[in-house]
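We give its fold:
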Amino acid sequence: MTATVDVVVPVYGKWELTRSCLEHLQRQSLPCNIIVVDDAGPDDTVARLRAGYPEVTVVALDRNRGFAGACNAGIRAGSADVVILVNNDVDAAPQLVARLASAFDDARVGSACPLLLKPDGRVDAYGICADPTMAGFVRYNGASVDQALSAHPSTRLLGPYGAVAAYRRSALDEVGLLDEGIVMYGEELDLALRLSAAGWRSVLVPDAQGVHLGGATSGRGSASQRRMAGFGRGYLLRAYGVLRGRYGIRALVTEAIVCVGDLVLSRDLASTTGRLAGWRAGAVSFRRPRHVPGVDRAIGFLDSLRLRVGDRRA
């Protein structure tokens, strides 16, 4: 039996991106319920949706709740077997929804990962992996499609990258939705860790593809972006008790190197202040599992540093 599908699109302004995203979703080969969540955006997205897209379910939030809050509102607004989160800066190929939905024919699968491409045809993301310190990395970013599909991966798949992420609703019911305590960056990593700890599998779906414009909705490399990324890292270090475990010293050394490098290159403390704020916020987060099968313990210290500077093709 074909699974029913909710596609949740969180938006904050950038109407032209949203319009293109919706046009591609409306051409999907498998019918789906499209839910657009306006995160109290600054433009007239809600009015445009209600006037021109009557078939789309619109959730208009009265205050900005961030990426996780907007996604969760959209998930709760639906009831389909499969939930696919799609950033509004993604143009989905016509078979993306159908291919991702078919992955859930296997009852052990809790999440599925498409092959996302950059506008120039290189790989944007082919799922994410995580090292023993719970640091997450995008797989195959910058590689060619042939490299991603033919090479034997040296990093174990943990779960989907946030730009397009497919989940079994019953798996989300079991482990919980995205943690709204994370401002931005790290929400999908945390959810992937919790799904893995609960015994759910994640699978790659190479023929489910889309183009991720990437960085169109946030300043890539800006102080704000680095601060929010640092917040997510500090939050998860605290929530998962990494510094109290066997990899605590490694995590401290790695974070120190990253923060010093960010200071030298960017001449600000955005990455450091973000981590400190996330560490404080993580103290009141709910308890996380300590054993996560999907974490790749083969990613060593030097490998982790290499991944952090963007060499993610393996």
